[in-house]
Protein 1
Amino acid sequence: MQPDFNFNKNVNKELHHKKNCIIMLDSKMEDALNQQVNAELWSGYLYLSMSYDMDNKGYEGMASWFALQAKEEFEHATRFMKFIGEMDGRVTLMPVKEVRQEWLSVADAFEDTLKHEKVVTGRIHQLMGMAIELKDYATQSMLKWFIDEQVEEEDAARKILEKLKRIENSPGGLYALDKQLGKRANGED
Ligand SMILES: [Fe+2]
């Protein structure tokens, strides 16, 4: 005799429905996460632009540091997109706005980096605030990684700026820092 799976089917259907109710993204949260995808892509563009500007200025190490920074930003965008997909949401890719093409000096680029990272930290905190308000525990858990990441990002930019201030644009100092930053490995700050 064939086993009767009808009962199981109904249970599965019910569970599936229940699961969707629990994990479904609020449309407000979905929109905000899609805006963040765009912001992360924009960050990637910004750091790529800095990378090519540093290369044009003859700082190969810094160019490679910013190229890795850009790669990380594109990975952040991917992380958000993957999460939206996993939450049964819809990824919406919006146009990425133009970025600045040139910086006055290395210090100018790193000052801009720290300023930008502070803006990103604010955005991530706003997203967390929204997730808390909506009692969206899955999004809160995902955002925790970004909150920790932002602490590292700001710290890395601040430390490089401090070094730049200490060498005060001395060519020898800049040469040494360029060499040091060129050693940044994939996955490091
Ligand atoms: Fe990022």
Note: DSSP finds six helices and no strands in the chain.
Protein 2
Amino acid sequence: MSTNQKFIWATGMTKQAPTSLLYLNVAPTQVVRCSLEESGNAIARLGNRPLILGGQHTLATLASSLESVLEQHQLSYECASYSPDCSEKSLAKLSEAVAAHQSDLIIGIGGGKALDTAKILAHQCQLPVVTVPTSAATCAAWTALSNIYSDHGAFLYDVGLDHCPDLLVLDYSLIQTAPQRTLVAGIGDALAKWYEASVSSGSATDTLIIAAVQQARVLRDILFQKSVEALTQPGSQVWREVVDATVLLAGVIGGLGGARCRTVAAHAVHNGLTHIPAAHDSLHGEKVAYGILVQLRLEEMLQGNQLAASARQQLLKFYAELGLPQTLQDLGLGSITLAQLQKAAEIACGENSDIHRLPFKVLPEQLMAAMVSTRILVEGSRKELSLPAVEVEGCLSE
Ligand SMILES: [Zn+2]
């Protein structure tokens, strides 16, 4: 069963989201880089009765600035929380809120899950949608895709939407109030574009896919060059350049590449980990960043790929500078049981998992071995790369 079929069954929809080759969902209709207060005109052009969707904390924090913008433009608004998660149950409840308020516009404000909820709700109700990211942790503000989770936060499936948001409001001052850790996570998620797209689509001949893969390489290089400096100077020009990379350029790649430029093992590992409750304390991009190391480790172990081995060593150094997780321990999963690790690996190796876009077969036991050896040294690498010796914690494979 495809993810779209699942989605239709789950929501009773009769219209399938157009993810065929005929449709290109490259970018939001409009992207404005201004303060939330200055975005009123752009929002008011899209509707008069917005439903504002976010987490309870975000809605409470931004209530006064939002109110002044919306009242200034005489918009009759209602607020709703997406809690407990971007789940089928929340969506059913929110559809009722849309009907009760007779909303003609959805405004999503918050992190990836709030924005994913707003986008898919707008898609279901056939309404325009505005995304206002409050952190640079993902490119969810840009893309025509939503991830659906269980009420307990376990990843279930993703849904392709029929268009990118109608308006994206990028307010740097809002993003600057988010913990630094969210930008670090966004860097991890954005880095995955290159490591995954080059595997899933590296030999594609389609013009836009080639463009997407090359942009993923540009994105990786921008992050390698600017991230460390950006993190020491929040709010600076270089910091904005890195925010643009994680929120906008990462979205461009998803838009150009679409469904044919897919995630591979890094996101499959993330999806498996979300089924371990203790993994909910780490952010999406943190789990994905760790997943990149696992993917490279699989390429080393199962394919003898030496380029993957050096890429992993390069990333380990970069992660150390940024504070991105390198191991299960770093993700707060140092004391999970073997059974939990096995469960995550089995889910990541499930029949429809993107891990199978790797050019070789991966079994759960092999994935588990890769998951516990992300920091293992490559033969001779200590000398070549002048890396300090790294212990392999709890390694099952060696
Ligand atoms: Zn991601």
Note: The two ends are 38 Å apart (CA to CA).
